[in-house]
Amino acid sequence: MRLKDISINNLRRRKAKVLFLILGLTIGMTTVVTLISITRKMNEDISNKLDEFGANILVIPRSDDLSLSYGGLNIGGVSVDAQTLKDSDIPKIRQIEVKENISTVSPKLIGVVEIEGKKILLTGVVFQEETRLKKWWKVHGAVPKSRNEVLLGNEIAVRLFKSAGDPLTIIGKTVRISGVLDETGSQDDFLIFGDLAFVQEALKKPEALSLIEVSAFCISCPIEEIVSQISKALPHAKVTAIKQTLQTKMEALDHFKKFSLGISVIVLLIGGLIVFTNMMASVNERKREIGVFRAIGFRKSHIIRIIFLEAFVVGLIGGVAGYLLGLGSSYMLGPVITGIKGGRIVIDPVLAVGVVFLSVAMGILSSIYPAIHASKMDPTTALRAL
Amino acid sequence: MSLIEIKDLSKTYESGEEHIPALVGVGLNIERGEFVSVMGPSGSGKSTLLTILGGLNHPTQGEVVVDEIPIYKLPLEKLADFRREYLGFIFQSFQLIPYLTVIENVMLPLSITEKSNREQWHMAEEMLEKMRLKGKGKRLPDQLSGGEQERVAIARALVNSPPILLADEPTGNLDSKTGKEMMELFRSLNEEGQTMIMVTHNPEYAAFSSHILHLRDGRVVDGEPAIMEKAGSGTQRIV
Questions:
Q1: What mean pLDDT do residues B29-58 have?
Q2: pLDDT digits over A80-118, tens only?
Q3: Both A219 and A284 in a single domain?
Q4: Is residue B114 part of a domain?
Q5: How many CB pairs under 8 A join A and B?
Q6: How confident is the model at residue B225 (pLDDT cuts 50, 70, 90)?
Q7: Given A61, A216, A307, B199, which is the most exposed site by the fewest CB atoms within 10 A?
């Protein structure tokens, strides 16, 4: 027989009380797991939305001559001096230190052209990058595959009375309209999108760029860091993070995170208190028994070990049960609380181990005082009252 | 050298401003193989003496030397080790651990030794057989009769082969027939060489011992006739 057998047998004897003890820890751990899972889910959702929304960073020429508005931001010197950004700047952005966080780099050249007597903005893009950036684009027809094809914004198509398949003449060059965008409600509705190289040639601005849109993976999103590194790589450019769009949502998430942390701390404190009072009561109930242990030669450290072993077992069961229940409740409550549908149960080993560890640590921490109290009990109480 | 030497032992309990003397200047030598009964009215200091002999209760004054070890000069954890190696306790109302089986109760003192589980089991089985409890090892204490529980308590006290057995009113909760059987068992253990010290109220049971120590108001009472059933038990060592 070892000390652990004494602990386990005692726990078995006090089934109802031990169950209450385990329940205290389980509720605490369930709350922690549920809140962490839901917060994560919300974070992921916002990150996805940020990615979906498109560019988080806009790179524009550093210029005092602000003459064009794009995406709510003024773009410097489109008509006067658009030579400050070049094709050669793109690899520089791709090579910054935190390049792993960069998802898409979409360069653009914007110029004014006259088509059928109307002044229209012609935008040169790399379609592969642009479509990755603007996941919400819906195209009637197809995205251009060659430099002889263009894509029309919805409003322009209406104004020019054109649809997919029609030819269009731009600065003396005839191209084919491969597709028309569905209405986006943005400036894209008023643009003609062509292949970047074609537009550079047509506007006689070889290698020139008006702006570069950069999208970052937003799970970790060190946006400020990316901005500062791009600024360093392109000293002639002005780098701006577009944050305001989902800022409010991020702030709401931040509030929810703080709220979750608060709730978790309170629930854990209550759990700790339950363990503490229960352990204290158990120790006082076992006064005589502990006296017997001491009388037959158990050291104080042996008594402490018996109590800690009990706390360990209770913590372990509470942690495992709390994790499993937390998974279940976040799966069921998650969609109700966050309004995000299509959740699935994700088993995160780090969270699982962390929660079990936390539960065991709480069990033992809350038992420190009861254990020391037990070890200091007067063994003579096991004998007759003096 | 005596196995136990008690020198000028005093114990005073403090209760607020009040000082309650429980033992006053007790001196006593106990040899190996002796069976000493401690008698006296309630409050005479019997239990205090037993707890002090058991290394559980620090005296206010004086010294207890067991096998040349001044036990109250030992650090507390060493004193616990001393109890494990030297003493077997039989408590009033036995104090068996209710959630441990009979054999686990007997193994309790061995659970904190280096002995393997198998070795512990073997020693406990042997002790249960000696106490005529063979086949009852897997029961819980409350499934046994009073006499059987007493024998489990004795088995637990002896399993570690301690040089000294301390018993506090061991027959207090038994009917007189079972009580006498226990005393017979104690006598036979003593005849095998076990040193024993027993606190009792009952002169009939005290008669089973080789020496009787009378206490009154915390002092050893001199000149009171000892009830000596056992003839020729050697020199009276009680001072």
A1: 91
A2: 454 478 888 899 888 888 777 788 899 999 988 888 888
A3: no
A4: yes
A5: 94
A6: very low
A7: A61
Give residue A100's pLDDT: 79
Using CA coordinates, name the residue in chain A closest to B23.
A386
Residue pLDDT, tens place only, B72-98 = 999 989 999 999 999 999 988 888 999
Q: Which residues of B touch A4 (CB under 8 A)?
A: none
Number of residues assigned to chain A: 386
Which has more pLDDT, A74 or B4?
B4
Q: How far apart are CA B127 and CA B107, in angstroms?
A: 10
Which residue range forms the structural domain that includes residue A345? 3-48+249-382
Contact yes or no for B77 and A298 at CB 8 A: no
Q: What is the ipTM of this complex?
A: 0.88
Q: What is the pTM of this model?
A: 0.70
Q: How far apart, in whole angstroms, are the C-alpha atoms of residue B232 and residue A291? A: 38
With an 8 Å Cβ cutoff, are A384 and B169 in contact?
A: yes
Indicate whether A152 and A291 sit together in one domain. Answer: no
Tokens found for residue A37? 């899972």
Residue B194 CA to its chain's centroid (Å): 11
| Chain A residues within 8 Å of chain B (Cβ atoms) | 1-3, 5-6, 9-10, 12-13, 288-289, 291-302, 379-380, 382-384, 386
- Min Cα distance A350 → chain B (Å) is 36
The token pair that represents A192 in the structure block? 């003609």
Could you tell me if A24 and A170 lie in one domain? no
Q: Cα(first)–Cα(last) distance of chain A, in Å? A: 32
In a domain, B236, yes or no: no
Residues A204, A86, single domain; the answer is yes
Distance CA A63, CA B223 (A): 119
| CATH number assigned to the domain comprising residue B75 | 3.40.50.300
Regarding whether A258 and A145 lie in a shared domain, the answer is: no
